[in-house]
Design a protein that fits this description.
By secondary structure, the chain is mainly beta. The protein has five helices and 22 strands. The radius of gyration is 28 Å and the shape is globular.
Length: 469
């Protein structure tokens, strides 16, 4: 049970412990062994059959898409390459714990002299798996417990329950994920969730209960995501000393929004890249599918990285966004932008820039932020080639602004307002890369351009996260 036999030139492959012909099986002089090797490596071969052994509940038609490229191989090296690529595609499905490949000469009455058989030996994941790990967000940490049912209906579907308890946020959710057979990058997901967060910079507590659906797909070199989200939001004061502006925002609201995001990412790492670039554009429209929140929101992120001499890296980043309230309703404090802190404009306290009321920061409807960074190896390169390579010295220059916009004034007035009263900072420090999970920074910051009401962090500042300016 669970074996796929394919004979046409249009289906299945991968890499494993045995890739080639055993010399012990060839009882010919050495000179003839070389001739046989030349025939296999440099002359045409035909993949006659592909077998997949070890299948349980996985549907065979799903795997046919993933391994069909093996039949197009023309020589032994091509078979090995395409088998390895097919193995990676099978593992990417997230339904197998192990995939091994065996390539052998064809056997049987219909075997051709240059025919090959490819066998994939797979081990499926258990029907239910659990996980426990920790996650690092933007200057916060959390403990995550998960329960996953992989391959629910046999075609790489996934049902996941996750509970997260963090320093500022607690959440739990249920999600269903379904990829398109043969095109794993095209996938559909549905999520049910509840999130409770505390935002001390605004003296605000927020509880969200919602449902969302997402469809992700690639177009040329870009990745796109279309999303609908319906969320019931409950806002409350975190402290009795909360300002009147925050108290006015308290209560219940319903947001129904459509959003689209486009990403082009050529970086070699999302945590601490040494080369490549990132372009991310996001749009969100709320109010046209129901709810009492109505706005149009646009934001973008650009990053360019360039490797210099002596293993140094120069990085430049630019963020920006605007929020346009629709109708006569003002924007909600939950939908506005926030800026400042060790992951954005360093030298300022977390999200403690821009409009505020009695010490509570209310966010803004327009913002921009830019950064220029130089990353170099540690002086004298201690621990080179091992643990020391996880550390880098860091020199930075950050700038940005956050404000509310009067949309009756026009774009020229908006640019003028965003270009005035610029906050900026510079400094140096050291950072630690935690694999591809997160990074830690310890910087000495000198804030400049401080405006009335801004809360600064002059001197040593610690930051942890996955997304940095």
């Amino acid at each position: 049970m669970g074996t796929v036999h394919a004979r046409s030139l249009d289906p299945l492959p991968m890499h494993g412990p045995e890739l080639g012909v055993h010399a012990d099986d060839i009882e010919t002089p050495e000179i003839e062994q070389e001739t046989k090797q030349e025939v296999l490596e440099n002359k045409d071969v035909i993949v006659q059959r592909v077998h997949i052994d070890g299948l349980g509940k996985t549907k065979e038609d799903l795997l046919t898409y993933e391994i069909s490229g093996v039949f197009r191989a023309k020589n032994l090296l091509d078979v090995m390459k395409r088998s390895h690529e097919a193995r990676q595609r099978l593992l990417r499905l997230g339904i197998f714990r192990k995939v091994e490949v065996v390539i052998d000469t064809s056997q049987g009455a219909d075997a051709l002299p240059n025919g090959l058989d490819v066998t994939f030996e797979v081990t499926e994941l258990r029907r239910m798996t659990g996980s426990y790990n920790t996650m690092v967000g933007n200057n916060e940490g959390s403990m995550v417990l998960g329960l996953k049912l992989p391959n629910v209906f046999g075609r790489a579907e996934k049902l996941t329950f996750q509970f997260s308890y963090g320093t500022k946020e607690t959440s739990y959710g249920l999600s269903f994920f379904k990829p398109q057979p043969g095109h794993f990058e095209r996938n559909f997901s549905v999520n049910l969730y509840k999130v409770t967060g505390q935002f001390p910079w605004s003296s605000l507590r927020e509880t969200d209960r919602g449902i969302s659906t997402e469809f992700s797909f690639p177009v040329w070199r870009t990745n796109h995501t279309l999303k609908w989200e319906g969320v019931w939001r409950e806002l409350g004061c975190l402290a009795r000393t909360a300002s009147f502006a925050v108290r006015e925002e308290s209560g219940h609201s319903l947001k129904s929004s459509l959003s689209h995001s486009m990403v082009i990412d050529t970086r070699n790492s999302s945590i601490l890249p040494k080369k490549g670039a990132l372009l991310k554009i996001h749009q969100e429209l709320a109010g046209y599918t129901g709810g009492d929140a109505s706005f149009l929101k646009e934001d973008f992120e650009i990053q360019v990285n360039r490797r210099l001499y002596w293993d140094a890296v120069l990085s430049a980043s630019l963020w920006g966004g605007v929020l346009l309230p629709l109708g006569n309703k003002p924007s909600c404090i939950s939908d506005r932008f926030y800026l400042g802190g060790p992951t954005s404009v360093r030298g300022f306290s977390m999200y403690s820039m821009g409009p505020q009321s009695d010490g509570d920061y209310l966010g803004g409807e327009g913002y921009w932020a830019g950064g220029l960074h130089l990353y170099t190896p540690l002086p004298f390169r201690p621990g080179r080639g091992s643990f020391g390579d996880l550390f880098r010295t860091h020199f930075f220059l950050n700038a940005g602004n956050l404000c509310n916009l009067n949309y009756s004034e026009g774009p020229q007035a908006h640019f003028k307002k965003l270009a005035s009263c610029i906050r900026w900072s510079y400094g140096a420090g050291i950072l630690l890369r935690l694999g591809n999970i997160a990074r830690l920074e310890l910087n000495y910051c000198i804030p400049m351009g401080v405006q009335s009401g801004d809360r600064i962090c002059d001197g040593v500042q610690f930051g942890a996260g996955i997304r940095f300016l």
